[in-house]
Amino acid sequence: VALMWREIRSNSADDVTQKLHPTCSSSSSSSSSSCSVPGVSGATPTEEMNGAGNLMDFLDEPFPDVGTYEDFHTIDWLREKSRDTDRHRKITSKSKESIWELIKSLLDAWSGWVVMLLIGLLSGTLAGVIDLAVDWMTDLKEGVCLSAFWYSHEQCCWTSNETTFDDRDKCPQWQKWAELMTGHAEGAGAYVLNYFLYILWALLFSFLAVSLVRVFAPYACGSGIPEIKTILSGFIIRGYLGKWTLLIKTVTLVLAVSSGLSLGKEGPLVHVACCCGNLFCSLFSKYSKNEGKRREVLSAAAAAGVSVAFGAPIGGVLFSLEEVSYYFPLKTLWRSFFAALVAAFTLRSINPFGNSRLVLFYVEYHTPWYMAELVPFILLGVFGGLWGTLFIRANIAWCRRRKTTQLGKYPVLEVIAVTGITAVLAYPNPYTRRSTSELISELFNDCGALESSQLCDYINNPNMSRPVDDIPDRPAGPGVYNALWQLALALVFKIVITIFTFGMKIPSGLFIPSMAVGAIAGRIVGIAVEQMAYHHHDWIIFKNWCRPGADCVTPGLYAMVGAAACLGGVTRMTVSLVVIMFELTGGLEYIVPLMAAAVTSKWVADAFGKEGIYESHIQLNGYPYLDVRDEFTHRTLATDVMRPRRSEPPLAVLTQDTTTVEDVETLIKDTDYNGFPVVVSRESERLIGFVQRRDLTLAIKNARQKQDGVVSSSVVYFTEDAPQLPASNPQPLKLRRILNLSPFTVTDHTPMETVVDIFRKLGLRQCLVTRSGRLLGIITKKDVLRHMAQMMNQDPESIMFN
């Protein structure tokens, strides 16, 4: 183990940085290396081993909170990895001592799988309860079931013995509010009363949602995915994944979706699942005391969230890998798969959709797609990319206006206003009145012989005698043309209202509204292509594959492709999007059209800007997030970015054996830095290591309480052995155990392209800049972000989180 540790400490970072950039080389004449992890103070391998041992001893110190992080700070991934390695080595060595220690080591090894099991069970249960509650409360706006008020409209009519097939949505047990109050189900008065009560219920639901969020859990608003991405990259946001956030987000998500606003529950379900993951992490010290290990659990929890949101376990794992996670080792991939499996199984056991399937949008198409149809599929991809660009720019502009004007001070009023406008405009149109999930489900459906939707009002040939599953293309009837007008109005309404809805102070997902926009556009295009093929089957583009009387075009497939294109244009997902879509619909045969649309929408959207909606909101909020997909191509050096600059005061440092406790406390009081380099002396400035501000504060506080003789004039030593002092001198304070003897360093001539790659791939919190072993300055993660913003002609201070 000792040999392996020496090998890792002496070679790992050199190997990484040599691969990143060829100019990153070790200096044979200096005790430091230009891009190295080992201590740069001329320490021998034996001394480095002592430092590693001291770090492990320090982790066993009894005083609490050492090694933890303050709110709105970034974790040190290398430090967390080292601590976990030390913990694991300690458990392994102890397991050979007794049977009890062996059992404890086995329990520690299995704790990850236990956490995954608990996350899957709880997130699947919560998703099932949310689905059932949303169905009931959505229908509650229109009427109530007399036989059992907790039944939704569909459930109420299932239990009725008087429901006919033609009027399957009407049954005596279900009554609209006007019929219940006045006894009249038809007429202008009944319509107005139902209209008024629909608006009233919507306002009540949204008011309850925004009030609960504002009073009890402000972090429960929004989608949650931008913040989850930031947290998984190493940022600390205390309370964002807490118990209150979990409870309030679950309740208010039901209220927000039921109010009829143009939002979905899929994004917030990822937040809910991550809250479940954080909750169960607190039960195991392996995860509660290590922020790096905790983020592995949260990555798997995000996969479980998408699994129950869409009924797509494989898509959930890929979503976590492609879109959310920052660090995703192979072990996390297996555990994500297991968590998604358990969550999907739990949801299937609850069966919230009542169709014995895991998904709401299950489709069965009986017609294959043809090569000529790739043209409209690609056009839908272009539409999805343009819609994604329009939505991101408009929504970010509106959210920025909300943050910088008086509008942001009245979140309740904003939610009430948007809900009122949405309800007033949505009720007259049957396609916007119903829930968005039901709308998408109807748009995806193929028109069989038993469908009674307006979209299936085709003119039938009385002489037609074909199997039910192979109905030929037919001319559109008046119901179809009427539905097209209503869908066109619904498309404009959804495009506009979603821009103002996403980002309000209530739980709001973006997946379902984006899919609805694409599904409406796709269904319109599908019906247009279908009618062209019917009326102009002799055209050269239709002649080869569409014979008269054949079932050539499936409009529902176009809706599915359009939904994938618009969702891809907004989020910039590709692989996970296609997998989610075919898991969501069961349309395995239509992977190629989905891939064509997803890739086209990403290309078109990327032509106008590389950031998806989540990355744009991360930038808007100024979170310190280094996106792996961003490219840095500017020819600047570490010396151009490091601090202090020439006009700034010198770097605040500690010396290894001449600083007093009073000097340290004064330095902590007068500065707000998160850590301090430790040097041999202020004259030589040869680097010894780096000490965190929080650890320094806690160590001095603990020493004053528990160690006799420590006063303000006591000398602080960071050396291995404190020198012998006269008896008249105050008791010295040795703090070598909290000193990081292996801070990451680069030379002043290291290209910033390499530095940015190091920060991304190693998750650094800060990096020290040296020349021939002498300390010159420091580069923090925020310095890197400021420099990247400056290189893109942005105001570097305006994007930083405050």
Automatic annotation (TrEMBL):
PROSITE patterns: CBS
Location of this chain's protein in the cell: Endosome membrane; Membrane
Keywords attached to this entry: Antiport, ATP-binding, CBS domain, Chloride, Endosome, Ion transport, Membrane, Nucleotide-binding, Repeat, Transmembrane, Transmembrane helix, Transport
Regions of compositional bias (Low complexity) in chain numbering: 24-36
Its membrane topology: Multi-pass membrane protein
UniProt main location, coarse: membrane
Domain CBS: 642-706, 739-797
Thylakoid found in the keyword field: no
Record-linked CDD domains: CBS_pair_voltage-gated_CLC_euk_bac, ClC_3_like
GO cellular component terms, semicolon-separated: early endosome; endosome membrane; Golgi apparatus; plasma membrane; synaptic vesicle
Transmembrane intervals: 110-130, 195-220, 241-261, 297-321, 374-398, 410-427, 483-503, 510-529, 557-582
Location of the region described as Disordered in the Swiss-Prot/TrEMBL record: 16-46
Residues annotated as signal peptide: none
GO molecular function, one term: antiporter activity
Stated family: Belongs to the chloride channel (TC 2.A.49) family.
PANTHER family linked: CHLORIDE CHANNEL PROTEIN, H(+)_CL(-) EXCHANGE TRANSPORTER 4
Protein name: Chloride channel protein
Gene from which the chain derives: CLCN4
